[in-house]
Amino acid sequence: MNKKFKALSLYAILLTAVILVGLAPGTAQDPLVSLSRLNQEITDLRNYFNARINAISTSSGSLSPADIMFLQETIREALREELRAELREELLQEVQGTQFTILELRANETIVGGEGTRIILRSGTATIHSQVANGLADLTTGIELFNGNNVPANHLLLVSRNDGRGITATSDAWVIVEGSFTITRG
């Protein structure tokens, strides 16, 4: 029983560590975090959990009440953080369309806009993505851009219908989006 409980405890700690490390850092007001800061936080978490795992796995006999309480609280906190992440995602979906969203697209990622969505390519390169004969309206120049056309930087593009139109990044790119959208990996 003790070996099974220890194994389950170690699994719970590792699962919690993975969940906590996988959470997106920053806030809506300050979404940027430096890579060195993120790496340091991950290293600190890894060291903390490794120390606890070593302490539990090398202890003789059963787990102490303090270790059990630690495991319970760690699992509770991981579940709370997971719930917070889900709520954050729901909130993001609710505010889409009411404010600008700044996104980084990786090469071959496609952002497909809903009806009335506006897209501006700020940096990088992209092409028009359209599953229909029509394309996106380039409101800056007053022309229509069709599937496969290059997206000019800093031009305001309009998705007129919810029928699969958007842009596909051909390199890593930054875009500003206003309206509803989905991102797919191509």
User: Mind describing the biggest β-sheet?
Assistant: 6 strands, antiparallel
Q: Indicate the structural class.
A: alpha+beta
Total of domains: 2
For the record, give the distance between the C-alpha atoms at the N and C termini, rounded to a whole number.
Answer: 48 Å
Compute the gyration radius: what is it? Answer: 23 Å
Give the low-pLDDT segments: none
Q: What percentage of residues falls in helices of 4 or more residues? A: 40-55%
Shape category: elongated
The residue-averaged pLDDT reads: 78
Q: How many helices does DSSP assign?
A: 3
The helix/strand order is HHHEEEEEEEEEE
How would you characterize the overall build of this protein?
This protein is of the alpha+beta class. It folds into two domains: 2-95, no CATH class; 100-185, Jelly Rolls (Sandwich). Helix content is 41%, strand content 24%. The protein has three helices and ten strands, in the order H-H-H-E-E-E-E-E-E-E-E-E-E. The protein has helices at 2-22, 35-58, 65-95, and strands at 100-105, 109-113, 118-123, 126-129, 136-138, 143-145, 156-158, 166-169, 173-178, 181-185. The chain has a six-stranded antiparallel sheet with strand order 1-9-3-7-5-6, with no helix packed on it. Helix 1 runs antiparallel to helix 2 (35-58). The longest helix is centred in the middle third of the chain and has 31 residues, at 65-95. The mean pLDDT is 78.
